[in-house]
Amino acid sequence: MNTFIQKIVSSARELSSFAILPLISVAIGCLLFFTGQASVYESFVYPAMLVALAVYYILLCAFSTRVRNSVQAAGKTWWRYMNLLSLLIIAGWLITLYFKKGFTLGSAAPFNDINTFGLFLSGIMFIVIGNYLGKISKKFTTTIDLSSKSIRYNALMLASNKTADGAGLGYALIGFIAIVSVFFLPYRYAFMLLQGMIYSAFLVYSIVMYIVYRRELAKLQK
Fold it and tell me: Could you read off the pLDDT of 86-127 as tens digits, one per residue?
């Protein structure tokens, strides 16, 4: 029991900088709720998501050596990525409440409607993910001891490493197009465009990933 608690405490200390934003969001939620500015759901749904994410990574790092090594290898890049995502989630949450109060951020799209502004924020999030995806993926794979894994697993890791930059570029491109679309297209068409790009990108990535995987597998089997 003591060992179990020690692992969790040790992991929590390592991830303490990542836990700050979730805790800040809880404090903001309490302030909104007790001042009557938002309902229980509105005050705590997003903080609950961030706290759950922080707890998830704390437990993973506590009981998975591979995950702990991966996070340590990614270093500051991983922290920047997770904290940026947390900030975007908090910003989206607070701006949503602002819109629900009947206010807007401007007179023109995407700042005059919560739906189009949500797409705008989604575009920013895709760009953030795309910017960090390749860097983090490559650092994660450096911590895996390929000599102790099967040939198929090694081929999969090598393929993932080689396609990481392309996947990151794809995410960033989707985000950029999504942001531009909300300025020129009605919300319905901008949303359909985003959905179409996501499904298309997933299909293209799956095909490219499979092709690279087969090539790497053939090399390892020689």
Answer: 888 888 888 888 888 777 776 666 777 888 888 888 899 899
114-141 and 151-184 helices cross at what angle (nearest 10)?
160
Helices 40-63 and 65-74: angle between axes, nearest 10 degrees? 100
Measuring CA to CA, which residue among 44, 47, 67 is closest to residue 57?
67
Short-list 154, 156, 158, 161, CA closest to 135: 161
User: Which has the higher per-residue pLDDT, 8 or 153?
Assistant: 153
Return the residue matching tokens 């499904």. 199
Provide the token pair at 142.
């450096």
Alpha helices, DSSP H, located in the chain: 2-14, 16-34, 40-63, 65-74, 76-100, 114-141, 151-184, 187-221
Question: What does the alpha-carbon distance between residue 145 and residue 151 come to, in Å, rounded to a whole number?
Answer: 12
> What letter would DSSP give residue 38?
S
Amino acid of residue 107: S
